[in-house]
């Protein structure tokens, strides 16, 4: 079997690459190791598929900001919305800025992409693992050999390996001359080992700010958003967004800490002043009554003493303020790639030409999607990277 373009991996980025390579007039085959396509698309956004976000900037990603910006400019959010509309998939914006299909079904997105690829003349081969690639190009697969003039590698990273994204693409890309930075889970829940009151409040959510600090107290990263307390530790958007920064910090400094502020926007000093002022207005008020409605009651039950503000000692007041604004969370580990939404690390962007997604190491090779050292925030950003980078790779693999 001989093709103009072989796309290895038919997830979000791979399908996008295949569609635009096919539309460019190339004979395209898309090869995927899974029996059924699009498992990550189908589980994204709680089964609704958070297609993109209404505003996407390079600052929403970890990776070379300049390189990410060039790729994002090639396919904007407005163009993404129009592209899916042309496939019959209309999107709606939710209050968070996330864009979902109006059907609230991820299958709407997947079915449209697969059908569009077929309409573009793409042959899709499933349940076929690519075991080796030799330029210029011979691909060995578990379903037999394939020849292609160009290859687009969209094999994904290591997140949710049961979907087929098990890291096998790294060996392939390394065999073609590329390097791979250290990879670790991103957008992953965090675990607190042993007994802790947070685990007793499983299911409680709160608006909070999380901060990763060094062992000496220097703040490395702050994130704000909804925090979900769970039976194993913490999850929710803010925990997922901060997770890769906590993991990276711990690799450099095993004593790096994760702090939670249950009162976004408040500092130690501002909260202390509020308590002093509140005590003057109503000495019989308690810290909990002062903060009722701003922090969930069950969290206040653990962190706020029952003494009135008028009787609360200076030390007790300050201990309470620290617990509410800079409580250290004894996180011991993450939940691993099985629960991670994305992979941090991968092929460095300086090893590709981001104007075309062409490899700088092997002629005729293109890279896109999660295999690259780019990972974004939760909220549709990683899909936007997949659509933009996949489209670029497909256009140029077909036309170069």
Describe the structure.
This protein has 13 helices and 23 strands. The chain folds into 2 domains: 2-185 and 342-399, FAD/NAD(P)-binding domain (3-Layer(bba) Sandwich); 189-335, no CATH class. The longest helix is centred in the last third of the chain and has 19 residues, at 381-399. It is of the alpha+beta class and 400 residues long. The strands form 6 sheets. Strands 1, 2, 7, 8, 9, 10 and 22 form a 7-stranded mixed sheet that branches. The protein has a 7-stranded antiparallel sheet with strand order 17-16-13-14-15-12-18. It is elongated, with a radius of gyration of 24 Å.
Topology overview:
Elements: E1 2-8, H1 12-23, E2 28-31, H2 39-43, E3 52-53, E4 61-62, H3 65-73, H4 77-86, E5 91-93, E6 98-101, H5 106-119, E7 123-125, E8 130-134, E9 138-141, E10 144-153, H6 168-175, E11 184-186, E12 190-191, H7 197-200, E13 205-213, E14 219-229, E15 233-235, H8 237-252, E16 257-261, H9 268-281, H10 287-291, H11 297-303, H12 314-325, E17 327-328, E18 333-334, E19 342-344, E20 352-353, E21 358-359, E22 365-367, E23 375-376, H13 381-399
Parallel strand pairs: 1-2, 1-10, 2-7, 10-22
Antiparallel strand pairs: 3-6, 4-23, 5-6, 8-9, 9-10, 11-19, 12-15, 12-18, 13-14, 13-16, 14-15, 16-17, 20-21
Helix pairs in contact: 1-5, 1-13, 3-13, 9-12
């Amino acid at each position: 079997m001989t093709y103009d373009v072989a796309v290895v991996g038919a997830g979000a980025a791979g399908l996008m690459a295949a569609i635009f390579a096919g539309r460019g007039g190339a004979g395209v085959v898309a090869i995927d190791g899974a029996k059924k396509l699009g498992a990550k698309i189908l589980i994204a956004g709680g089964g609704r598929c958070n297609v993109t976000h209404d505003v996407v900037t390079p600052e929403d990603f970890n990776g070379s900001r300049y390189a990410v910006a060039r790729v994002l400019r090639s396919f904007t959010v407005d163009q993404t919305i129009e592209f899916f509309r042309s496939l019959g998939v209309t999107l709606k914006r939710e209050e968070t800025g996330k864009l979902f299909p109006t059907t609230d079904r991820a299958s709407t997105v997947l079915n449209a992409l697969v059908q569009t690829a077929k309409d573009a003349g793409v042959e899709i081969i499933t349940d076929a693992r690519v075991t080796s690639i030799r330029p210029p190009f011979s691909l060995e697969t578990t379903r037999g050999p394939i020849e292609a003039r160009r290859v687009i590698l969209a094999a994904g990273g290591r997140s949710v390996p049961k979907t087929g994204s098990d890291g096998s693409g790294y060996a392939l890309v390394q065999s073609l001359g590329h390097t791979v930075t250290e990879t670790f889970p991103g957008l992953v829940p965090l675990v607190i080992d042993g007994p802790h009151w947070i685990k007793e409040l499983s299911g409680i959510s709160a608006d909070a700010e999380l901060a990763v600090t060094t062992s000496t107290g220097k703040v490395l990263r702050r994130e704000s958003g909804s925090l979900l307390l769970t039976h194993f530790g913490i999850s929710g958007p803010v925990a997922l967004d901060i997770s890769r920064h906590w993991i990276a910090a711990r690799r450099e400094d095993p004593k790096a800490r994760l702090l939670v502020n249950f009162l976004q926007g408040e500092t130690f000093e501002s909260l202390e002043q509020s308590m002093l002022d509140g005590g003057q207005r109503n000495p019989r008020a308690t810290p909990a009554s002062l903060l009722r409605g701003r922090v969930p009651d069950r969290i206040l039950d653990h962190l706020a003493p029952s003494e009135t503000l008028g009787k609360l000692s200076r030390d007790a007041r300050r201990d309470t303020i620290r617990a509410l604004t800079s409580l250290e969370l004894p996180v011991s580990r993450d939940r691993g790639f099985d629960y991670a939404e994305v992979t941090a690390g991968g092929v460095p962007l300086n090893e590709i030409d981001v104007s075309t997604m062409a490899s700088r190491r092997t002629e005729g090779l293109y890279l896109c999607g999660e295999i690259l050292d780019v990972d974004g925030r939760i909220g549709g950003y990683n899909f936007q990277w997949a659509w933009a980078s996949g489209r670029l790779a497909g256009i140029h693999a077909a036309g170069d």
